[in-house]
Amino acid sequence: MKRRERIRHLIELGGLVQKAGLVDLTRDDRAALYGAFLTLAAMLKGADAEHTLALWRRGGKRAFEAEAEAKNGQG
Question: How many angstroms separate the CA atoms of 3 and 7, rounded?
Fold first, then answer.
């Protein structure tokens, strides 16, 4: 991956962390955020990984759709 693409990707991931409210909920505690990410990673190493990922993906898609609908309704 090229450097600029990687930087853009990291910025987008940071935006998702912010959008999900994790920064505010953890009071911008990097150790807490890292611990949460480690917990998520451990869940994806478990026997139910595919099911867990499917649930997260579905929830994320719904959130993106709801955000798009809200944005379109304001315009």
Answer: 6
Say if pTM beats, i.e. exceeds, 0.85: no
Please name the residue ranges forming H helices in the chain.
3-19, 22-25, 30-44, 49-74
30 Cα distance to chain centroid = 15
pLDDT digits (tens, 9 = 90+) for 5-48: 999 999 999 999 999 999 999 999 999 999 999 999 999 999 99
Q: Report d(CA 16, CA 64) in Å as an integer.
A: 11
Rounded to the nearest 10 degrees, how much is the dihedral formed by the CA atoms of 3, 63, 35, 33? 70
